[in-house]
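Team,

Forwarding the record for the chain on the shared tracking sheet. I've put the sequence and predicted structure together so nobody has to dig through attachments.
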Amino acid sequence: MSHALSRIGRRRALRGAAAAFVALGLLLWWLAPWSEQPPGGTITLSTGTRSGVYQKYGELLRTSLGRHMPDLEVRLETSDGSQENVQRVATGQADFAIAAADAVETYKLDDRPGAGRLRGVARLYDDYVQLAVASDSDIRSVEDLRGRRVAIGPPNSGVRLIANRVLKAAGIDPETDVKPSSDGIDSGPERLGHGLDAFFWSGGLPTDGLKTYTEQAALRFVPIDAGLVSELHDQGGASRYYRATNMPESAYPGSQLGSAVPTMAVSNLLITRTDVDPRLVEWLTRIVLRSRDNIGRHVHSAQLVDVRTAIYTDPLRLHDGARRYYRSVKP
């Protein structure tokens, strides 16, 4: 009996030692990249408008990069949004940018300069299309926008792409059937009822530039139903990146009265170019994923960044440096 117990004890001890060895190995693997000398230099990250989620995310990411890559200077450049961001990266005016998948695909389909050099780093989070009107407006559907004063976003924004497509899907010509303006998130909310009847916005939930107005019950959101999304899919091309969804009632409690709002969403990507240093991209990818919780405390939508979905950067292939990181953490 004592010999049997001794054998059992030895087996348990061996199992415990093996488990400890594996745990130590995993810990060393996790810490190893941080023991390397991180790359330095200067990079430019193109973000978005000052009141938008892209800019806030960029500021927080720069802080995270500064902690782990102290010799790297990150310059943030505001922009009109996705269309301008894609163009900047493709033509070398920026090294990294955040852009919606439909804007990336549009740039590729149009065979714009440098389109073939674009690469993906990570899929981040979804933008939700938010069609806002004054709380007392009689506009109840996209079709009701005909003849109204509608902000469709700055010319080089992702909002402009989406707004034009949504209007066309509803049978409305964005140039002749509405009175279009280029107001964005910086000016659109405060102009509702004072020069604007409605404005389109596409961004993560919630967007700080809208929260104040929704808390004052100064605006509400018009539904974009699944039928319109189906109509968009029928258009083909970049419209295939839109999906029907609901803006949850918790997004803007002051304006949704406890109800979800039907709308559509499109994924956001962190993008770069083929000529950007793979080691730099690998480090940046690692920090994007590991900073999720910290950034997510300030940008709610960033909480959805996850290594299991980050690799899906369609319509772009992964950059070699990003691929190297994802392979290193593959189970």
